[in-house]
Design brief:
Blueprint (H helix, E strand, L loop, with lengths): L2 H16 L3 H5 L2 E8 L4 E3 L1 H13 L1 E13 L2 E12 L3 E14 L2 E8 L2 H9 L1 H6 L3 H14 L10
Length: about 160
């Protein structure tokens, strides 16, 4: 995959996000792909289930993105998502995403964002008070997985 093909694949993926097309996003991942962000650590078909579930319930959703760095088979994208969490709390989440391709499919995606800032917006007083604590992040992760029908992740040692 050369730089031009990588840029086109990233554009296709983030345009699907902007359209709220979780199925198109899921189709961009390799079968054994991994996805990680402060809330989720997913593998394979769990990734598509996450996107489809999150985008299917998103309210007043909008996204803007900039492809910051492109190399053959990898890229870094800065993305800002705006939506109502739970249909009532406005969230503006700035995300930096590192994506590695295997051929034309995503093999690995690592998204970084400020979980404490997100939690304060999305979860209100509890998020403001506890958003910087790891136990709270793990609790949010467990609830998110359960709400999307994704089995619990294996505990890390």
């Amino acid at each position: 995959m050369n730089e031009l093909e990588t840029r086109a694949a990233l554009t296709h993926f983030y345009d699907a996000l902007a359209r709220r097309d979780g199925a198109a996003m899921a189709a961009r991942y390799a079968p054994d792909a991994t996805f990680e962000d402060p809330v989720f650590r997913l593998r394979g078909e769990e990734i598509g289930r996450m996107w489809t579930g999150l985008l299917g319930r998103a309210r007043e959703f909008g996204v803007s993105y900039t492809i910051r760095d492109v190399a053959p088979g990898s890229g870094v994208v800065e993305c800002t998502a705006r939506y109502l969490f739970g249909g009532r709390r406005p969230v503006v989440n700035a995300i930096v995403s590192e994506i590695v391709f295997d051929g034309d499919r995503i093999a690995r995606q690592l998204d970084r964002f400020d979980f404490a800032r997100w939690a304060a917006q999305a979860l209100g007083p509890a998020g403001r008070l506890f958003g910087r604590f790891d136990w709270f992040r793990r609790s949010v992760s467990r609830r998110a997985r359960r709400s999307l029908g994704i089995p619990p992740s294996a505990p890390t040692v």
